Amino acid sequence: MSESGILQFLNPLLKSGTGIVGLILIVIPLAMALFPQYIAPYDPYKRVARPFQQPSLVHPLGTNDIGQDILSELIYGARISLFVGVIAALATVALGSLVGLIAGYYGGLVDEALMSVTDTMLLIPILPFMMLFSTFMGRGYINIVIVITIFAWPGVARYVRAQVVALKTQPYVEAARAVGAGAARIIFKHLLPQIAPTLAALIMLRACASMIAEAALSFLGFGDPIQKSWGTMIYWARRSGAITSGAWWWITAPGLMITMTVLGFAHIGYILEEYYNPRLRRY
Amino acid sequence: MAILTVTFIIPRLMPGGAFAYLIENPNISPEFREALIRQFGLDKPILEQYALFLREFFLSGNLGVSFYYRKPVMSVILDALPWTILLVTGSTIVSAVLGMLIGLIAAAKRGRVFDRALFNISMFFRSMPAFWLALVLLIIFSYYLDLFPLYGAYSYGRTYESIFEYIADVVHHFTLPFITLTILTASAYSILSRNSAIDVLTEDFIITARAKGLPERTILYRHTLRPILTPLMTMTAIELGYSIGGALMIETVFSLPGVGKLMYDAILMTDYPVLLGIVIMTSAVTLMLVTLVEILAAIIDPRVTLT
Description:
The complex is a heterodimer of chains A (about 280) and B (about 300). By secondary structure, chain A is mainly alpha-helical. Chain A has 11 helices and no strands. Chain A has one domain: MetI-like (MetI-like fold, Orthogonal Bundle), CATH 1.10.3720. In chain A, α6 packs across α7 (about 140-165) and α9 packs antiparallel against α11 (about 250-275). Chain B has 2 domains: about 1-60, no CATH class; about 80-300, MetI-like (MetI-like fold), CATH 1.10.3720.10. Chain B is globular and about 80 Å long. Chains A and B meet through α5, α6, α9, α10 and α11 of A and α1, α6, α7, α10 and α11 of B.
């Protein structure tokens, strides 16, 4: 993205209170993900204190069952949680847009076939499918990204298709067809750039869903046991008896980070969506 | 129409059944595996297997045998299903009604503190992973305040004097999971009914009602309520998938003996037949509930036609 592109992206956000809140909520985990070594007080993989210590000045968020500092774990965990959320969102939007563009552009039987799959997948609960596929594919964050992408694209496809159907009767698309442009050229050179701004909003909103899905799958134990994400932290907390020993700090901290980050993405996503699609404006 | 598509797609999404059964599983003996292979005809070509699987499923509801429980998958799932359906339908009804009322009030006070607070609170709850809210409520209300039990749907090993005592015990166990799921879904319903109510409030018949001098209360509960029921019904159908996903996670946290817990155990035991069965059954139940909601919507709003 060029410099003016970033400015264009930030402009609608800085104009509204919600947008600024969203940016702040995202900047915190982003800083954690980029420079954990400068922020974290301890090495999250080392034993630095007695286990199950309550939050104190030395360890602001307490320690876990093997005496690791939870604040440091949290800061290092940001990288994987954000990475999985954003990569899965990008992949979901790419796949969904492709399906939506093809269905919307070609129409007819192709459209009907693709949309009946899409509608069905939108209705049925996808979490059991994700769990089933994760069991087949095994542990690991890359597998989580793949599983999320396989099941999360239908919402994007529906949205993109609706836009393409409205766009493709526009004179400039017909003109392109009249001078002999092929389907691929029209789809990628004429239709895609038109919907690109709304895709930015979609990526933000899909990042919310992806992060929650990652948390759920990691919580069930599908994450990499060696690398820590926030979901994986809660998985270990529950397995190591955080509930039965009342270690509320261990459960609360990672979940609150997930909630805050998701909230940040949601705020930014909604502001961008309203900005590029003014009919949605709420107030 | 949608149901036909699903019954067509789901068996196809499954890796042919054969894949699942032939995965090395230390829990089953070679003889047992051989017997399974013969019983399900896994030595036959893939298309014949596929036909066989469809025939078994549609004629007798046979989904195979669980590796772990050594019982038919169908009966294992049917034991767990009522708990999940109880949780999902109960909280769906409560949160739809609750969300509708909160949304109406927010719409009447559009732009004011209540409305903005509602929006922000709903967004906050919707940003939470369901299992995390469950864990937090569990640690506060069960561990620290000791108001509710830590796990289960009833007290294990307890004998009951009467059926009412049993019901009271189950209600006691279900309160927290129920509240968790209801908070999460009510957020979505209240936002939706607020937005639809605001659309309705700008329509001509509302202006007419105001001109007639009807009190705001009557306008809100008599004239606005009915038109927003239809979008709310559509929403219910869409929300069900989320509700069931949430319920599965919440059951795992609270150790309720429902489908979510069953699925979690099946993952730990790598009990593939049960996993496959749950995926099929949750989809089937969701579609049944969606159809039910569509029928209800058609009864409430005569403009909606059944397809």
